[in-house]
């Protein structure tokens, strides 16, 4: 897909998608004049098939499938360098968030499923315990990814250093947090939140 | 007899400080005690959602931060935050909800309450450099860190994006250098102090962390640093906990201690090294600190 020929027509351009991304991110893609500064400073550009400036260009051209199909959005580290340096105030880090949300909602089979898995387990952890417990997160990740990452966070070594907690206190705000998750789901069901 | 505090804050440690970064929490408590700055932990605070929440679900991220600010509102004093990532999330939530009434309405619905988000959120660095002040910090010095060459590592979220944290200049900050120089340390000039360590890929893409963090360690070593100073538990995890893996992958020996700003400052302010958690670090700073006559 990366090198396939791009034909611009009403069929291949999805401008509604672009509007949605602009709204979610509170940022315009039209302001970009392709100076490339974002990509020059991006620490993850070597891992991406589309560097940040090309992501914006593809969005300007309504090519959302190309953007979502690749791994680029899942390799963005949210370091905010691009947003800080853009001369046109394109908030690319927020656009990356918006694109990930679109991909996440579409639940398309992502090539970057491990990143998605880590995100999902992290959020599940918050809903269940109110806080992150690295031990549980690591254990769940190993279980679900089917890979026993033997070195993950050097589990045993951290345990002997007293750095990983096996037990934890119950958070008094668990009911409140469940309520937040539920009410967000409600809003979405009613179509009142993205 | 307990002496009166000169300043008082509510305190949001964040998840890491209760686990893999407990020495950051311990050294913060010790430092603030000796400086007579009060810290009262927000009871039953919740995870801020960190990168995974804003990565895929902005509304959840904003709601979790708003809930924490509501909880913090019950405790006196501006909110002191130790973790650069939590700090960035909380400040971003304040910024976005201020600017976007539609998102604000959604978050109000999620919390089922009007928002209480006005409490100033301050990173520890800001409290030390601005509220407490560099002069006072220098006056609190009991043991000068002179002779110690420190590479101050900011990483991403302490200064970026420019409109949000407003700690210091986004591209050429000096706040960390100024703080540690006030304790007598020497700071080195180096290229990678604002580069990303690969933070949130620790779990899912360790290869990324190995590459990015390797470049940071190499840059600090080139500059002749004795150690790296950080103000974020995630940076610390990648640079200290992962350092052996990085050495193995790159075939370079670094053996560069990575210390929390509060550990170094507390040491200079006369807190006993035993209370500062040096034992629980993967790359032990003790040989270095002994060599410099600091422990
Ligand atoms: S820095 Fe801004 S204007 Fe320049 S290419 Fe990137 S998004 Fe476009
Ligand atoms: S926020 Fe993402 S896209 Fe922007 S510079 Fe950082 S890694 Fe690259």
Overview of the molecule:
The complex is a heterodimer of chains A (194) and B (295). Chain A is mostly helical and 194 residues long. The mean pLDDT of chain A is 84. In chain A, α1 packs across α7, α8 (113-129) crosses α9 and α8 crosses α11. Chain A folds into 2 domains: 15-106, Fumarate Reductase Iron-sulfur Protein, Chain B, domain 2 (Orthogonal Bundle), CATH 1.10.1060.10; 110-189, no CATH class. The longest helix of chain A has 17 residues, at 113-129. In chain A, 55% of the residues lie in helices and 0% in strands. Chain A is globular and about 55 Å long. Chain B has 295 residues and is an alpha/beta fold. Chain B folds into 2 domains: 7-123, Up-down Bundle (Glutathione S-transferase Yfyf (Class Pi), Chain A, domain 2), CATH 1.20.1050; 134-291, Rossmann fold (3-Layer(aba) Sandwich). Chain B has helices spanning 22-35, 50-56, 58-72, 84-99, 101-111, 124-139, 175-181, 206-222, 233-241, 243-250, 261-268, 286-291, and strands spanning 7-12, 37-41, 79-81, 121-123, 149-152, 186-187, 227-230, 258-260. In chain B, the strands form 2 sheets. Chain B has a 4-stranded parallel sheet with strand order 2-1-3-4. A 4-stranded parallel sheet of chain B has the order 6-5-7-8, with helices on both faces. The model of chain B has no long low-confidence stretch (mean pLDDT 94). At the A-B interface, α6, α7, α8, α9 and α11 of A face α2, α3, α5 and α8 of B. Bound molecules: iron/sulfur cluster (2 copies). The site of one iron/sulfur cluster has 14 residues of chain A, from α2 and α3.
Largest chain-chain contact? A-B, 66 and 60 residues
CATH superfamily of the largest domain in chain A: Alpha-helical ferredoxin
Shape of chain A: globular
Whole-number average pLDDT of chain A? 84
Strand portion of chain A: under 5%
- Looking at the structure, the CATH topology of the largest domain in chain B is Rossmann fold
**Main sheet specs of chain B:** 4 strands, parallel
């Amino acid at each position: 897909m990366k090198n396939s020929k791009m034909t611009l027509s009403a069929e291949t351009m999805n401008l509604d998608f672009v509007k949605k991304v602009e709204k979610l991110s509170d940022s315009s893609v039209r302001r970009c004049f392709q100076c490339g500064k974002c990509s020059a400073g991006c620490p993850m550009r070597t891992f991406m098939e589309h560097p940040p400036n090309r992501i914006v260009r593809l969005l300007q051209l309504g090519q959302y499938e190309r953007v979502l199909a690749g791994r680029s959005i899942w390799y963005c580290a949210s370091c905010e360098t691009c947003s800080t340096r853009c001369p046109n105030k394109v908030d690319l880090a927020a656009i990356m968030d918006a694109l990930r949300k679109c991909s996440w909602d579409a639940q398309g089979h992502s090539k970057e499923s491990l990143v998605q898995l880590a995100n999902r387990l992290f959020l599940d952890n918050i809903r269940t315990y109110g806080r992150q417990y690295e031990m549980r997160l690591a254990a769940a990740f190993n279980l679900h990814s089917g890979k026993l990452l033997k070195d993950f966070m050097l589990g045993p070594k951290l345990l002997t250093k007293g750095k990983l907690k096996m037990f934890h206190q119950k958070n008094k705000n668990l009911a409140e947090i469940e309520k937040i998750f539920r009410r967000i789901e409600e809003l979405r069901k009613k179509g009142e939140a993205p | 007899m307990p002496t009166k505090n000169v300043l008082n804050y509510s305190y949001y440690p964040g998840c890491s400080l209760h686990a893999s970064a407990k020495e950051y929490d311990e050294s913060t408590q010790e430092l603030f005690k000796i400086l007579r700055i009060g810290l009262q932990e927000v009871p039953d605070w919740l995870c801020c959602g960190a990168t995974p929440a804003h990565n895929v679900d902005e509304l959840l991220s904003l709601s979790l931060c708003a809930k924490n600010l509501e909880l913090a509102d019950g405790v006196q004093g501006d909110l002191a935050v130790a973790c650069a990532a939590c700090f960035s999330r909380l400040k971003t939530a304040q910024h976005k909800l201020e600017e976007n009434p539609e998102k604000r309405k959604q978050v109000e619905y999620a919390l089922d309450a009007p928002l209480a988000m006005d409490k100033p959120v301050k990173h520890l660095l800001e409290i030390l450099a601005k509220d407490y002040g560099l002069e006072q910090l220098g006056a609190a010095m009991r043991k000068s860190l002179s002779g110690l060459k420190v590479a101050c590592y900011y990483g991403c979220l302490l200064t970026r994006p420019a409109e949000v944290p407003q700690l210091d200049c986004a591209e050429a900050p000096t706040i960390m250098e100024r703080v540690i120089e006030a304790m007598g340390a020497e700071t080195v000039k180096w290229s990678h102090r604002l580069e990303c360590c690969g933070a949130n890929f620790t779990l899912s893409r360790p290869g990324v962390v190995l590459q990015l963090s390797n470049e940071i360690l190499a840059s600090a070593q080139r500059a002749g640093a004795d150690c790296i100073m950080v103000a974020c538990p995630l940076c610390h995890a990648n640079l200290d906990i992962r350092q052996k893996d990085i050495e193995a992958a790159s075939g370079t020996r670094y053996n560069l201690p990575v210390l929390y700003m509060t550990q170094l400052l507390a040491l200079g302010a006369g807190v006993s090294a035993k209370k500062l958690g040096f034992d629980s670090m993967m790359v032990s700073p003790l040989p270095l600190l002994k060599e410099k006559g600091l422990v």
